[in-house]
Design goal:
Keywords: Ribonucleoprotein, Ribosomal protein, RNA-binding, rRNA-binding
Number of domains: 2
Mean pLDDT: 81
Strand content: 5-15%
GO molecular function, one term: rRNA binding
Distance between the termini: 27 Å
Oligomer: single chain
Helix content: 40-55%
CATH superfamily of the largest domain: Ribosomal protein S4/S9, N-terminal domain
Largest sheet: 5 strands, antiparallel
CATH topology of the largest domain: Ribosomal Protein S4 Delta 41, Chain A, domain 1
Low-confidence stretches: none
Shape: globular
CATH architecture of the largest domain: Orthogonal Bundle
Number of strands: 5
Subunit structure: Part of the 30S ribosomal subunit. Contacts protein S5. The interaction surface between S4 and S5 is involved in control of translational fidelity.
Protein name: Small ribosomal subunit protein uS4
Function: One of the primary rRNA binding proteins, it binds directly to 16S rRNA where it nucleates assembly of the body of the 30S subunit.
């Protein structure tokens, strides 16, 4: 599957928010948004900053924020939306629940990796287990009650130990962790979800 391999800080600048795509470096005071403010990249960045967005433009930007934060390309993101639209209740919340319960995101949320891209790498390289079985599919959706852990050989990886130091205390309420074993206690509710973007505008974008 294709994925974005360009400069990640450029994505932060384009969306005007810190999407925490680079782990420790995203929390540094040297982050471009910390240094220069939310100025879009390129020689015409200041002009883009002054331009008033249309309703479609605002919807597009909110969609792009979420796509880029979770590292997902358009075709898969649209499939997630179609799946969420078939669920009962709020479609925007259902979409974010699907994204949050992806295995790579759960590994990141548990503090086993400093960023979602690093978590995806851990998963694809076979370092992650779900219910004590190796699972190397980043898009695998974990369920309530599932146990997510690292294989024994992976627990001392520098990437993991540094991540636990960086993110060890940032556990969301819908996950529990004991040592290097995490458990999904319940699906994230609306109040448990990070306010990356306005999910209602994403629903409006795909409902045009």
């Amino acid at each position: 599957m294709g994925r974005y391999t360009g400069p990640k800080f450029r994505l932060d600048r384009r969306e005007g928010v810190n999407l925490f795509l680079k782990g420790k470096r995203s929390s540094s005071p040297k982050h471009p948004i910390e240094k220069k403010g939310a100025v879009p990249p390129g020689q015409h960045g200041q002009r883009l900053l002054r331009r008033k967005l249309s309703d479609f433009g605002r919807q597009l930007r909110e969609k792009q924020k979420v796509k880029r934060a979770y590292g997902i390309l358009e075709r898969q993101f649209r499939r997630y939306f179609e799946k969420a639209s078939k669920e009962k209740g709020n479609t925007g919340v259902a979409l974010l629940q699907i994204l949050e319960t992806r295995l790579d995101n759960v590994v990141y949320r548990l503090g086993f990796a400093p960023s979602r891209s690093a978590a995806r790498q851990l998963v694809t390289h076979g370092h992650v287990q779900v219910n004590n079985k190796k699972t190397d599919i980043p898009s695998f959706n974990v369920k309530v009650g599932d146990l997510v852990s690292l294989s024994e050989r992976s627990q001392k990886l520098p990437l993991v130990t540094e991540a636990l130091e960086l993110r060890g205390d940032l556990l969301p309420s819908w996950l529990n962790r004991a040592g290097l074993v995490g458990r999904v206690s319940h699906l994230p509710a609306a109040e448990d979800l990070e306010a990356i973007a306005n999910e209602q505008l994403i629903v409006e974008y795909y409902s045009r």
